[in-house]
Design brief:
The chain is of the alpha/beta class. The protein has a domain of about 140 residues: Rossmann fold. Helices cover about 45% and strands about 20% of the residues. The chain is built from 8 helices and 9 strands. The strands form 2 sheets. It has a 5-stranded parallel beta sheet, with helices on both faces. A 4-stranded mixed beta sheet has the order 4-3-6-5.
Length: about 210
């Protein structure tokens, strides 16, 4: 249970179409986890609801938050829209003693790891370029030029996999879901996450 360890920060990154959003949902099935809702200036896609996965704001509002140092990390993605992780989610997670799950890109992950070096970073990899292209086309969200750009961006992002603690190759979604949950459960048992609890147990032995 989450109460037995210091709260974790779990970072999940991966190329568009790698399945990271679905695997984040698998992490959120674990008791004692909560999602960091990103702020973005992009318009909502069909079926998206504000404050479920994203909080949609204007560019002016986003820049106000930047000036007020309200972000744990932020970036402009594909040179078009801005995304950021508000610091409030980290504060809320620690106050509620819950593990915080962040779905962010490699730029954002790098920023968070500098500020929260004890965070756990998981990189989601598609089984092949061909499979990733197939998934991107199946989504029906992007035109030909955008798909090519996302594939090139995927290559650049995947070169950064060595900066992550874990790599999960998402060939079978069910198996990959089990793996990310196992990573989180294992991280909860790290010595650094349980020092206070073990010290208290040791006190019960006397001496």
């Amino acid at each position: 249970m989450a109460e037995s360890h210091e709260p974790l920060v779990l970072i999940v990154s991966g190329p568009s179409g790698s399945g990271k959003s679905t695997l984040v949902k698998k992490l959120l099935e674990l008791p004692g986890t909560m999602l960091s809702i990103s702020v973005t200036t992009r318009p909502p896609r069909q079926g998206e609801t504000d404050n479920k996965w994203y909080h949609f704001v204007s560019e002016d509002e986003f820049q106000r938050m930047v000036r007020n140092d309200e972000f744990l990390e932020y970036a402009c993605v594909f040179g078009k829209h801005s995304y950021g992780t508000p610091k409030k989610w980290l504060d809320d997670a620690r106050a509620q003693n819950k593990d915080l799950v962040l779905e962010i890109d490699v730029q954002g992950a790098r920023q968070v790891r500098k500020k929260v070096p004890e965070s756990i970073a998981i990189f989601i990899v598609p089984p092949s370029r061909e499979e990733l292209e197939k998934r991107l086309r199946a989504r029906g969200l992007d035109g030909e030029g955008e798909i090519r750009r996302r594939l090139e961006q995927a290559r650049l992002e995947m070169e950064q996999y060595v900066d992550y603690d874990y790599v999960v190759i998402n060939e079978n979604l069910e198996e990959a879901g089990d793996v990310v949950q196992a990573i989180a459960c294992g991280a909860r048992c790290r010595t650094t996450q349980n020092q206070d609890r073990v010290r208290n147990i040791l006190k019960s032995f006397g001496g």
